[in-house]
UniProtKB/TrEMBL annotation:
Residues 154-181 form a coiled coil. Keywords: Cell membrane, Coiled coil, Membrane, Transmembrane, Transmembrane helix. One of its GO terms (cellular component) is plasma membrane. It comes from Streptomyces fungicidicus. It comes from the Bacteria. Residues 19-97 form the Polysaccharide chain length determinant N-terminal domain. This is Polysaccharide biosynthesis protein. The chain crosses the membrane at residues 34-53, 254-276. Pfam families: Wzz.
Length: 521
């Protein structure tokens, strides 16, 4: 009977996006301490500015400004011109002279501002050293502006009337010449050329008379319109002190500082996340390490209900790791990355669970030994340093605790255990270092049984499981044969175990696992 094996061509892995928005949002949310601190700092800065730098005493007044060129469809050009004229040294100097002040007009201009509320309403805001001084300055400035505006109106009207009268006088002189010519001409005869000339002179005299009358009316209208404009330009709101509320100013500045600080914090967190390139999602950590995430352990919390859930999760994790260690024929180690304290505590809990059935010795290879120097408690397993690892009794199960952080002595890792469980803190290591860890463990032929993720994102719904095998094969790696009685192992079993370990660590391309249950090949 011939068995045919169907060979399927593996699908090419999907191209990784240039920017993973889900990972970015998760990473920014995990850095909430940064942007919350920035927001709080902005809020406090806004309150401090309101308290320590209060605005000077300020007075405000409003002036109604009449323009000769007012039009219903004016976009506000005239009132903006008035506001610009208000900031001239001529008006500032006139106001200072009325107050008999020795201050320079250039300096006084910096203490006030004009704002066009409508096409004809100008608001003047003036600051001073006291409320009384601010009111006095506002009144003097408003009076100076009104006087200057009236003077300009009258000068414009006088100039226009003068021009019209000059045109009228020229027309009168020309009319006198035409009249003199008519008087000097003899009576014309019918049908002669003199009759035609006389008719043109009479027509010219009539035209000049009409234009002289028109210029006289226009000059009179120019003078008549000036009093209306002068009367229409006046102070409609007397100078008064602008009330200042410290709580209101503090609240406004605090809100502005809060928004700005939050925006800066979020931007800094997003930029730092992209630059640092530290994976947070389970699927990313599993893909970069080339090993599945087998368990998670949330961060510590002061909330009672969360502490109960964390203790229950730790108990389940210790039970699962105990089964993994008991089913292994060779030592197993816990290698931490960014969570030395959590890995040492987990090793002690695991040692206590195993010590109930067989002798256990924990080999502490962490930098600055954390376990071998602690005071043992009842029920704790025996703890030795990395240098005393060979002094244990036969039949004892060894449980190594080490690190794969930068500066690790990679050649010492196989002595802690041929199989290992990586205890990794989410968002701690960069992508390049996760690749380094996976490559170094492969070179040292240390099989990775799985990854325990510390402080995962609670909203992470990605799978974090790698699977690159035929369908129907149980997920997981084949285990070594159980130990023989007395702790000895036959040469045949050792050969089988060595071959199994080599088979287990064959290079496998790491694939990004999608959020759904679809398998990545």
């Amino acid at each position: 009977m011939t068995t045919r094996t169907a060979h399927t061509t593996p699908e090419p892995p999907a191209a990784a996006p240039l920017l993973d928005l889900q990972a970015l949002v998760v990473a920014v949310r995990r850095r909430r301490r940064l942007w919350c601190s920035m927001a709080l700092l902005g809020l406090l800065a806004g309150v401090a500015v309101a308290v320590l730098l209060p605005p000077p005493p300020t007075a405000v007044t409003k002036v109604l400004v009449a323009h000769q060129q007012d039009q219903p469809n004016d976009p506000g050009t005239l009132i903006r011109t008035d506001a610009a004229l208000l900031h001239t040294t001529r008006i500032a100097g006139a106001a200072l002279r009325s107050m008999k002040s020795s201050e320079k007009p250039e300096d006084f201009v910096e203490d006030y501002e004009g704002l066009g509320l409508t096409n004809n309403l100008l608001q003047i805001t003036v600051a001073g050293d006291s409320d009384a001084e601010a009111v006095e300055r506002a009144e003097a400035l408003a009076d100076a502006f009104v006087a200057d505006h009236v003077r300009r109106i009258r000068e414009a009207a006088s100039a226009e009337a003068k021009t019209l009268l000059e045109q009228r006088d020229r027309m009168r002189d020309e009319l006198a010449e035409v009249n003199a010519t008519i008087e000097e001409e003899p009576p014309p005869q019918s049908g002669s050329q003199d009759a035609a000339n006389m008719e043109s002179l009479f027509a010219r005299r009539a035209e000049l008379t009409s234009r002289i009358t028109d210029f006289s009316q226009r000059a009179a209208e120019a003078r008549v319109g000036t009093p209306q404009l002068v009367a229409g330009t006046q102070i409609v709101d007397a100078a008064r002190v602008v009330p200042h509320s410290l709580p209101r100013a503090a609240g406004t500045n605090a809100a502005i500082g809060l928004v700005l600080g939050l925006a800066l914090g979020l931007a800094a967190a997003a930029v730092g996340t992209v630059v640092a390139d530290r994976p947070v999602l389970r699927r990313e950590i599993a893909a970069h390490l080339g090993a599945s995430v087998v368990a998670e352990l949330p961060r510590r919390s002061l909330l009672p209900w969360r502490r109960r859930r964390i203790r229950a999760a730790r108990t389940r994790l210790v039970t699962s790791l105990a089964r993994t260690v008991r089913g292994s024929a060779e030592p197993v180690s816990l290698l931490e990355l960014g969570c030395a304290r959590g890995a040492s505590t987990l090793a002690l809990d695991l040692g206590r669970a195993l010590a109930a059935e067989e002798p256990v010795v924990v080999v502490d290879a962490l930098s600055g030994p954390r376990l071998s120097r602690r005071r043992p408690k009842p029920g704790d397993p025996a703890v030795v340093g990395a240098g005393d690892a060979g002094a244990g009794q036969s039949g004892e199960r060894r449980l190594g605790v080490g690190s794969v952080a930068p500066g690790t002595a990679w050649t010492d890792l196989p002595y802690l255990g041929a199989r290992t469980v990586l205890v990794v803190r989410a968002g701690h290591a960069a992508t390049a270092w996760l690749h380094t860890v996976a490559r170094r463990l492969e070179e040292q032929r240390v099989a990775v049984a799985g990854v325990v993720l510390i402080d995962p994102d609670p909203r992470d719904r990605s799978d974090g499981t790698l699977w690159d095998g035929p369908r129907g094969v149980p997920l997981g790696r084949s285990e070594r044969p159980a130990r023989l009685n007395g702790g000895g192992t036959s040469h045949a079993l050792q050969a089988v175990g060595e071959e199994t370990r080599r088979t287990e660590r064959l290079p496998m391309p790491a694939a990004r696992i999608p959020d759904s249950d679809q398998e990545a090949r």
